[in-house]
From TrEMBL:
Spans annotated as Disordered: 1-20
InterPro entries: PcG_RING_finger, PCGF6_RAWUL, Znf_RING, Znf_RING/FYVE/PHD, Znf_RING_CS
Any GO BP: negative regulation of DNA-templated transcription
Organism lineage: Eukaryota, Metazoa, Chordata, Craniata, Vertebrata
Domain RING-type: 36-75
Lineage top rank: taxon: Eukaryota
PANTHER family (UniProt xref): POLYCOMB GROUP RING FINGER PROTEIN (PTHR45893)
Described function: Transcriptional repressor. May modulate the levels of histone H3K4Me3 by activating KDM5D histone demethylase. Component of a Polycomb group (PcG) multiprotein PRC1-like complex, a complex class required to maintain the transcriptionally repressive state of many genes, including Hox genes, throughout development. PcG PRC1 complex acts via chromatin remodeling and modification of histones; it mediates monoubiquitination of histone H2A 'Lys-119', rendering chromatin heritably changed in its expressibility. Within the PRC1-like complex, regulates RNF2 ubiquitin ligase activity.
Native organism: Gambusia affinis
Protein name from the UniProt record: Polycomb group RING finger protein 6
GO cellular component, one term: PcG protein complex
Intracellular or extracellular location(s): Nucleus
Keywords: Coiled coil, Isopeptide bond, Metal-binding, Nucleus, Phosphoprotein, Repressor, Transcription, Transcription regulation, Ubl conjugation, Zinc, Zinc-finger
Assembly and binders: Component of a PRC1-like complex. Interacts with BMI1/PCGF4, RING1 and RNF2. Interacts with KDM5D. Interacts with CBX4, CBX6, CBX7 and CBX8.
Gene3D superfamilies named in the record: Phosphatidylinositol 3-kinase Catalytic Subunit, Chain A, domain 1, Zinc/RING finger domain, C3HC4 (zinc finger)
Length: 236
């Protein structure tokens, strides 16, 4: 990832390396990807709406949801009653912003410390994220380690996706490479639809309906609720 550097005229350029013969791009060219459309500032605690994948500062989107349940960018209904359920932190994007914008992380940390000190509160320590992955190495009897894939407990719903065609037929789509997916029961049918659209590279004009057994599923239904409602019919 490119790193922002401050030039003598005060502008920040982005370059692939420290050599002068490399092409330098102004930071303003990346503004659409690293700035919040609500406050027009650089992302702080970048948070993404899972329904439409638009990203904002955490404080901006939380305040916005006090008065609206729609995305500020595309106006999609995030959740009928609890839109905060459908937002997730985007730590990778936030790391990119901090690397591209000099001194931003230090300034935010200083502001946060002053906020807590002015109110006589203890400054919270950064949460260390342990790099735990789904691959666990176990030692075999012959002395060589073997890899064992373990599924995280939150991924508790197993789906088999089958394409059953369309009334008028479509030809410009990409077949699913793997029909089996493992997903959280908190996910909604809307999440599954977005996944299918991306994987099959479907046009926005294509209507995607999801059916389980004889039931046409609603976008706002969660998978765990469908599992309880449909029951054994889900296996047919």
């Amino acid at each position: 990832m490119s790193v922002g550097r401050r030039s003598h005229d005060g502008n920040t350029n982005v370059s692939g390396s420290d050599t002068d013969d490399e092409t330098k791009l102004p930071l303003t060219q990346f503004y659409p990807y690293i700035r919040c459309t609500v406050c027009c500032g650089f992302f702080i605690d970048a948070t993404t709406i899972t329904e439409c994948l638009h990203t904002f500062c955490k404080s901006c989107i939380v305040k916005h949801f006090f008065s609206s349940n729609r995305c500020p960018t595309c106006s999609i209904v995030v959740h009928e009653t609890q839109p905060l359920y459908n937002i997730r932190p985007d730590r990778q994007l936030q790391d990119i912003v901090y690397k591209m914008v000099p001194f931003l992380e230090e300034l935010e940390r200083e502001k946060m410390c002053n906020f807590y000190k002015d109110r006589g509160l203890a400054v919270p320590k950064p949460v260390a994220v342990s790099p735990q992955g789904p691959i666990v190495l176990k030692k075999r009897k012959d002395g060589f380690p073997r890899a064992v894939f373990t599924i995280p407990p939150e991924l508790n719903i197993y789906l088999l996706l089958e394409f059953v065609g369309a009334e008028n037929g479509i030809s410009d789509f990409k077949p699913l490479e793997r029909p089996y997916i493992c997903v959280s029961g908190e996910a909604t049918i809307r999440h599954v639809e977005l996944f299918i659209r991306r994987k099959m590279e479907l046009s926005p004009k294509c209507q995607v309906d999801l059916v389980c057994g004889d039931h046409l599923l609603d976008h706002h239904q969660s998978l765990k609720d469908i599992k309880k409602f449909v029951g054994n019919e889900a296996l047919q």
